[in-house]
């Protein structure tokens, strides 16, 4: 099936009892067992089924199947937030210690996770000088457990060379983990280019309405955990907490996602509620249509900004002079993201005036909403980073990040125009003279 059909139908057929067409909300904490032996088989991971909603829930299971099919993976795990998904994704490869080698262009909280939080758990985040494959390869050593990148950086907008990063990671015997939140599987399917694990903040484009937090990890099923037994003992040695179960042997291609659920979701409990899963499924049904409008509107807004004399620069990868333009053609089929940044003449103060003058576009730190959104990253999402780290992540003091929604493009542009007039009232007159 194609994306549009998968987004509506995958993972669910009307259930036998009521034949409900909409996915039911299974608002229950636990599930009854047929017998003592049945309960034991579920807890020993010997039988499929539900035992407790901290581990799995029928509503969330539909969401997981739908996301996995959209990405072309063998399985998915839905969790409470995108940050929880990232945390589980990293520790699931490195809970015996080691390092994660990452591109520098990251969302601010993800950078904090790798630079400050995970090191307290014995996992080091290593940040390359750039997102170029050779810069990544320089940092890989015998203790590396994964390479990590955002397919489209937030807020930098850089498009990573997924195929090249995957080849380098695999040459060193480690998986490539990517955050595919901004692109979504509608614009980019990273598994087609060698990525092994995809992570999503479902809060963003997939949910699409700014109402619901959620995250997901998707397993491609392609990384050979058994081949690298010494580097990944958690998959190849008996797990004492499950009576000696060996994940690579028991689960094969789904070993990664089954371990994430059985070890981390079960014991750390970052649970997505059934109601949130239901709401996210409603959003996913329209994601293909929304992404078309997001992309179309963003191009019109970016072109307006590029041609406006009050604007100093526009970082939009859909322009042919962008260094990432070739990757937009290769990986995104020419569909540049609706997330991009720009700077106003007059620097940070002019940028703040512009930001405060917005009326239609909402000032907040979320992205991927049906509504157009704006953010000043240096003072919000990337505030905890040093100036040098901000620059490496693609954030300047005057940077304004836009997440262009699905309103009428003329209304979006009119709001930007009036805010620019307040920020730079003399620029247009000077240009005319």
Characterization of the model:
The chain is of the alpha/beta class and 433 residues long. It folds into 2 domains: 3-282, 3-Layer(aba) Sandwich (Aspartate Aminotransferase, domain 2), CATH 3.40.640.10; 288-432, Aspartate Aminotransferase, domain 1 (Alpha-Beta Complex), CATH 3.90.1150.10. The protein has helices at 3-9, 36-43, 58-71, 82-94, 108-117, 133-137, 162-171, 184-187, 233-236, 247-251, 255-268, 274-285, 287-306, 325-332, 347-357, 387-392, 409-423, 427-432, and strands spanning 75-79, 98-102, 123-127, 144-150, 176-179, 197-201, 215-219, 311-315, 339-344, 362-363, 373-375, 400-403. The strands form 2 sheets. It has a 7-stranded mixed beta sheet, with helices on both faces. Strands 8-9-12-11-10 form a 5-stranded mixed beta sheet. The longest helix has 20 residues, at 287-306. The model has no long low-confidence stretch (mean pLDDT 93).
């Amino acid at each position: 099936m194609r994306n549009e059909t998968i987004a509506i139908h995958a993972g669910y057929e009307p259930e036998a009892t009521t034949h409900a067409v909409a996915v039911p909300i299974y608002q229950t904490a636990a599930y009854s067992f047929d017998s003592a032996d049945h309960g034991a088989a579920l807890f020993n991971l010997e039988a499929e089924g539900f035992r407790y909603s901290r581990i799995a829930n029928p509503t969330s299971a539909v969401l997981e199947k739908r996301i996995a099919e959209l990405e072309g993976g063998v399985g998915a795990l839905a969790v409470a937030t995108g940050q929880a998904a990232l945390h589980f994704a990293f520790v699931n490869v490195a809970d015996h210690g080691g390092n994660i080698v990452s591109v520098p262009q990251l969302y601010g909280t993800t950078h904090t996770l790798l630079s400050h939080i995970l090191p307290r758990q014995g996992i080091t985040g290593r940040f390359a000088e750039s997102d170029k494959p050779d810069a990544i390869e320089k940092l890989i050593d015998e203790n590396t457990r994964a390479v990590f990148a955002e397919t489209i950086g937030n807020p930098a907008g850089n498009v990573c060379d997924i195929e090249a990063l995957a080849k380098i990671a695999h040459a060193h015997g480690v998986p490539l983990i990517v955050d595919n939140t901004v692109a979504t599987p509608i614009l980019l399917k990273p598994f087609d280019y060698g990525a092994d694990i995809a992570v999503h903040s479902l809060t963003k484009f997939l949910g699409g309405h700014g109402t619901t937090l959620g995250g997901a990890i998707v397993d491609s099923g392609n990384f050979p955990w058994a081949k690298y037994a010494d580097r990944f003992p958690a998959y190849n040695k008996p797990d004492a907490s499950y009576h000696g179960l060996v994940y690579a042997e028991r689960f094969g291609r789904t070993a990664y996602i089954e371990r994430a659920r059985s070890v981390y979701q079960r014991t750390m409990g970052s649970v997505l509620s059934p109601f949130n899963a239901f709401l996210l499924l409603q959003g996913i049904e329209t994601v293909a249509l929304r992404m078309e409008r997001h992309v179309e509107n963003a191009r019109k807004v970016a072109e307006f900004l590029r041609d406006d004399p009050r604007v100093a620069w526009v970082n939009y990868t859909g322009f042919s002079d962008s260094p990432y333009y070739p990757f937009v053609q290769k990986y995104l089929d020419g569909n540049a993201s609706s997330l991009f940044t720009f700077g106003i003449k007059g620097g940070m103060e002019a940028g703040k005036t512009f930001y405060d003058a917005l009326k239609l576009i909402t000032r907040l730190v979320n992205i991927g909403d049906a509504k157009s959104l704006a953010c000043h990253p240096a003072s919000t999402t990337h505030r905890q980073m040093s100036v040098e780290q901000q620059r490496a992540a693609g954030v300047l003091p005057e940077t304004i990040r836009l997440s262009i929604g699905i309103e009428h493009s003329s209304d979006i542009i009119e709001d930007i125009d009036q805010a620019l007039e307040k920020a730079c009232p003399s620029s247009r007159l000077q240009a005319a003279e």
